Amino acid sequence: MEDEGIMLKLVVAGEGGVGKTTLIRRYVEGVFHDSKMTVGAGFAAKRLIINDGHGPTALKLQLWDFGGEKRFRFLLPKFCLGSRGAMLAFDLNRFSTFLKIDQWLDLIRENTEDIPIVLIGMKADLQRAVNQKEVIQFAKKHGLKAYFETSSKNDLNVTPAFEYIAKQMLEYVRNRISQAS
């Protein structure tokens, strides 16, 4: 039987229509598809190898795509259970989606342990409505691990963002194991 590797659950959250499902599909399938709004939550998985100073480590990322509409938010606490990392996404072209990031951050932090979280500015190929300096300040102020500007359409920073959070998640799990022993 083939080694599955370490399974890590990643929650991807943010307002509806920012492009979370499209980002995940670009990463997992390598293709760009405009997607319809996610109803409730979606799920995908991706195998990868991480080289992080401990040698190559096989991972299986479980990607939980949380529907951004307000009517689904009551589901988020249950979907956060067992998460080892999170991506908070907003649309660089819709300032209102950036203004809601703190609400998503609160939801994630209230329903997880101190997991690594990265901020993802989506649709970098289109006209910008959000100031990059403001986003970087927000990320630093709230202790987020990193900020990536991505374009699923142009495949800009998609794989680097997922590989970065996967490394952070693996480090998080290793630290928890060493603290427990």
Provide an overview of this structure:
The protein is of the alpha/beta class. The chain has a single domain (6-180), classed as 3-Layer(aba) Sandwich (Rossmann fold). It is built from six helices and six strands, in the order βαββαβααβαβα. The chain has helices at 20-29, 76-80, 95-99, 101-110, 132-141, 158-180, and strands spanning 6-14, 41-51, 56-66, 83-91, 117-122, 146-149. Strands 2-3-1-4-5-6 form a six-stranded mixed β-sheet, sandwiched between helices. A hairpin with a 4-residue loop joins strand 2 and strand 3 (56-66). The chain starts with 5 loop residues before the first strand and ends with a helix. The mean pLDDT is 89.
| CATH class identity | Alpha Beta
Q: List low-confidence stretches.
A: none
Assembly state here? single chain
Binned, the helix content reads 25-40%
Strand content: 25-35%
* Alpha plus pi helix count: 6
- Rg over CA atoms, rounded to whole Å, is 16 Å
Please report the total strand number as a whole number.
Answer: 6
Please, how many domains?
A: 1
